[in-house]
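pls design
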């Protein structure tokens, strides 16, 4: 018994439908004993909507996973969806409809070799101009429009979808990869595909669909309820894949990619349930991986046990960008381990317990000092001046521990313990670059935010006639307020000041106050240091 859609395409077993705002999968189409007309047996995505397991009056009409997740519904009350082409035309316009505002713009796309025209809707109405504009679209979004498949208009789609490079068909009624492939094979220029929030059944031989996704480089599989193995199985359809987003899939286990995803440069695993960094290390088998996002998982520690400190790990050789926001990282040893990565340039790790171990400025300084190649930290650039300041501060901060562990200002006696070097693997490097810290520099710093007064000398090489002045300033004073104080003392109101300081304890080192909003103490200035004023 057939139940046709509005466009004449019959509903089939396994298709997806919406009933009263709830999604379900069709498990039965036909008559039910002692009732009139036809019924549709469905398995609800939300099993609490159901009433039985597909059985009516002792007869099993269909089978489902949840024992009470099934129902029979009347076809006339079911939303069976629309074809992709109808949704496409409805969203972006047809030859006849009412005139609406149109914005056209030129932009570079993906390979940066050619320009395409983007047509956008203005206001709440769809764009209804001319069908010729459909064939100029680069990006098409038909999210949440109840698309069930390509429908009866594949030839029209081939004509008018020839320029589409980015397609979003998320949260629709697509039941399988075969139905997705029937759409994408009509879009020869497709580069980016979003099928998130669909329940897609994998075909027995996924590689047979490769031709339908031959140009796709970016794939979104968010909230699709796939395991890692299912991700790998589906990936064989995408030979050119460079970016893969698989967020919100409750993935707990990862494994060797088994030779798949070898062109991948970015993988996004945000909001899954990966608990161990050992699982993440499986992804280091991806030779071209440059960006790794594992935010909002349950990772507690990062480690690369294949090499010792000071050596380069064989894992993630190409990795430049790592995002571990919203995890459970609490030990500084994880930051030490990241210095083993050959190519790491950018790190994001907000909302981890580690960041609560000190004030934000200090935490950032420590991260910068511990990872030698870092160029961006939590979205902010690490300048050369900041790096030098962070490393010098690190040298001072842990000087007492260094001495107690066997460190010495005498190069021949400098032999800190293995425990110290494992906790501070770059410290000896800092000693070689900046020289060992003096005894007076190795006083334990206060951990509280007290307004301790620091006696400094203020002078300007640009105006030596004004001489030098000694002044006591609180460490919590911002650089901006310090500038105002200096302008008042020396009457340099008409000049935009630039401040730096030098210390007698470390020769030929001058540290710039490069951020007006930071506290003076951020730059590790100490009593007896000299502030230099320029303009």
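designed seq:
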């Amino acid at each position: 018994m057939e139940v046709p859609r509005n466009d004449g395409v019959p509903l089939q077993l396994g298709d997806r439908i919406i009933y009263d705002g709830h999604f379900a999968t069709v498990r039965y189409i036909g008559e039910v004993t002692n009732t009139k007309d036809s019924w549709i047996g469905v398995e609800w995505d939300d099993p609490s909507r159901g009433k039985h397991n597909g059985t009516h009056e002792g007869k099993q009409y269909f089978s489902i996973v949840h024992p009470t997740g099934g129902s029979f519904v009347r076809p006339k009350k079911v939303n069976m969806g629309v074809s992709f082409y109808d949704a496409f035309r409805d969203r972006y316009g047809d030859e006849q409809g009412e005139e609406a505002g149109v914005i056209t713009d030129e932009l570079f796309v993906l390979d940066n070799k050619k320009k395409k025209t983007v047509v956008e809707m203005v206001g709440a109405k769809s764009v209804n101009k001319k069908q010729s504009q459909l064939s100029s679209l680069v990006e098409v979004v038909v999210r949440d429009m109840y698309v069930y498949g390509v429908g009866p208009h594949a030839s029209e789609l081939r004509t008018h979808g020839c320029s589409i490079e980015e397609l979003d068909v998320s949260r629709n009624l697509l039941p399988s990869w075969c139905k997705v492939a029937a759409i994408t094979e009509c879009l020869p220029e497709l580069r980016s595909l979003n099928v998130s929030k669909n329940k897609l059944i994998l075909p027995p031989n996924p590689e047979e669909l490769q031709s339908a996704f031959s140009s796709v480089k970016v794939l979104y599989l968010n909230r699709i309820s796939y395991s890692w193995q299912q991700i790998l199985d589906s990936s064989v359809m995408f030979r050119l894949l460079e970016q893969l987003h698989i967020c919100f899939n409750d993935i707990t286990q990862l494994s060797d990619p088994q030779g798949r995803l070898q062109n991948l440069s970015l993988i996004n695993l945000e909001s899954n349930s990966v608990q161990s960094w050992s699982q993440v290390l499986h992804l280091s088998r991806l030779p071209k991986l440059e960006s790794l996002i594992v935010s909002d998982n349950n990772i507690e520690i990062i480690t690369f046990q294949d090499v010792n400190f000071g050596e380069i790990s064989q894992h993630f050789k190409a990795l430049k960008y790592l995002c571990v926001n919203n995890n459970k990282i609490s030990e500084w040893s994880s930051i030490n381990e990241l210095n083993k990565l050959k190519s790491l340039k950018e790190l994001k790790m907000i909302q981890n317990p580690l960041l609560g171990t000190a004030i934000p400025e200090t935490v950032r300084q420590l991260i910068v000092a511990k990872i030698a190649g870092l160029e961006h930290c939590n979205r902010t650039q690490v300048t050369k001046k900041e790096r030098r300041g962070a490393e010098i501060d690190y040298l001072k901060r842990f000087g007492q521990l260094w001495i107690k562990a066997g460190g010495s200002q005498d190069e021949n006696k400098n032999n800190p313990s293995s425990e110290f070097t494992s906790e501070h693997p770059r410290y000896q490097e800092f000693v070689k670059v900046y020289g060992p810290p003096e005894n007076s520099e190795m006083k334990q710093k206060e951990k509280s935010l007290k307004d301790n007064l620091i006696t400094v000398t203020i002078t300007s090489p640009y105006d030596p006639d004004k001489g030098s002045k000694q002044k006591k300033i609180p460490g919590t004073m911002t650089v901006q307020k310090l500038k105002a104080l200096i302008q008042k003392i020396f009457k340099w109101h008409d000049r935009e000041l630039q401040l730096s300081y030098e210390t007698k304890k470390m020769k030929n080192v001058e540290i710039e106050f490069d951020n007006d909003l930071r506290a003076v103490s951020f730059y590790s200035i100490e009593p007896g240091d000299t502030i230099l004023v320029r303009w």
